[in-house]
Design brief:
The protein is α/β, with parallel strands linked by helices and about 260 residues long. It has eight helices and 14 strands. A hairpin with a 2-residue loop joins β3 and β4. α3 packs across α4 and α6 packs parallel to α8. The mean pLDDT is about 90.
C-alpha cells in the first residue's frame, strides 16, 4: 500500500500545524510520499520582493519572475524545511522537484480563455524511480515544479501532481490519496467551520461549484480527487491533517 499525502500551503505556513502534520504522516503504514504546495509562503516572498501576484480560479498566473520566485520557494525553502523536519522524526526523506530524476515531465499549458503563463500540464510520472526509492527506504518529498524536457521549468498545481502520481502508482499498488489542509473538510457553510460533508459525490460537487459554495483552491482539489478515483486510486480523502491517522466522520471521502 502507498499513502500519497498532499500538504496545503496553509499547513506549511503554520509551523505548529506543519510539525503535527508530519508526525501524523510519519505514523502511516506502508510506503508513503509527500507532495506539497506552499502558495501562501510564495505570496509572502513575492510581496517582500515588491512583486504582485495574480490568481484566477484558484490557480496562479506564472510569468517569468513568478516562476523564479516559486522555484526558489517551493523547491528550496519549503522542500528542505519539510525534509529536515521528517529527518528529525526518524524518517529518511529526499526532496525532489519534478525535474530531478525526470520525476514529473510536463508541457506548457495551452492558452484557452486564460493564459496561465509558465504553468505545466503533466505528461508523465517516473514511477520506476519512485519504486526504487521505496525499495531502499527513501521517502520522496515532491515540490510542484516540473520540467518539459527542453530545459524549462514549469509551475504545476500540487493537487494535480498528487492525483497523477497516485494514478501512476495505482497500476502496481493500492493507493490512498489524502489531501490535507487547514479545514475539517469541504464546508457546507463557509461561515461555520464545523459544517463539513462526510462524503461528497461528483454530482454534488458540480452543484456546489455552480452555486459558488465551493470555489477558489477547493475546485482544482476536488476535480483532481474525482479524476484519481476514476483512474485506479482506491480512496481519496480531504481533511485536516489531525485525521490523517484517525479517519472519522469529519474526514471527507470522495465518491466516484
Amino acid at each position: 500500500m502507498i499513502n500519497v499525502v498532499k500538504l496545503g500551503g496553509d499547513i506549511i505556513f503554520n509551523k505548529k500545524l506543519l510539525i503535527s502534520s508530519l508526525k501524523n504522516f510519519s505514523k502511516l503504514d506502508g510506503y508513503k510520499i509527500i507532495v506539497h504546495g506552499g502558495g501562501k509562503i510564495a505570496d509572502l516572498v513575492s510581496k517582500k520582493m515588491g512583486y504582485n501576484i495574480k490568481i484566477i480560479n484558484g490557480r496562479r498566473i506564472t510569468d517569468k519572475t513568478t516562476l523564479e520566485i516559486v522555484v526558489m520557494t517551493y523547491s528550496g525553502l519549503i522542500n528542505k524545511k519539510i525534509v529536515s523536519k521528517l529527518q528529525s522524526l526518524g524518517l529518511n526523506p529526499i526532496g525532489f522537484s519534478g525535474a530531478d530524476g525526470n520525476l514529473v515531465k510536463s508541457y506548457k499549458r495551452s492558452i484557452k480563455k486564460i493564459d496561465y503563463g509558465k504553468v505545466g500540464t503533466i505528461n508523465s510520472i517516473n514511477t520506476d524511480l519512485i519504486k526504487s526509492l521505496f525499495r531502499i527506504g527513501i521517502i520522496p518529498v515532491l515540490s510542484p515544479i516540473t520540467h518539459d524536457g527542453n530545459g524549462n521549468l514549469l509551475n504545476t498545481n500540487a493537487d494535480t501532481i498528487a492525483s497523477y502520481l497516485s494514478i501512476s502508482l495505482s497500476k502496481t499498488y493500492k493507493v490512498i490519496l489524502s489531501y490535507c489542509f487547514n479545514k475539517l473538510g469541504v464546508l457546507k457553510n463557509l461561515n461555520d467551520e464545523n459544517s463539513s460533508y462526510s462524503k461528497i459525490e461528483e454530482t454534488l460537487f458540480q452543484k456546489l461549484k455552480n452555486k459558488k459554495i465551493i470555489n477558489k483552491g477547493m475546485i482544482p482539489k476536488l476535480e483532481n480527487a474525482f479524476y484519481a478515483l476514476k483512474n485506479g486510486v482506491s480512496k481519496v480523502t480531504i481533511s485536516h491533517p489531525n485525521y490523517l491517522n484517525h479517519p472519522t466522520k469529519k474526514t471527507i471521502i470522495c465518491l466516484g
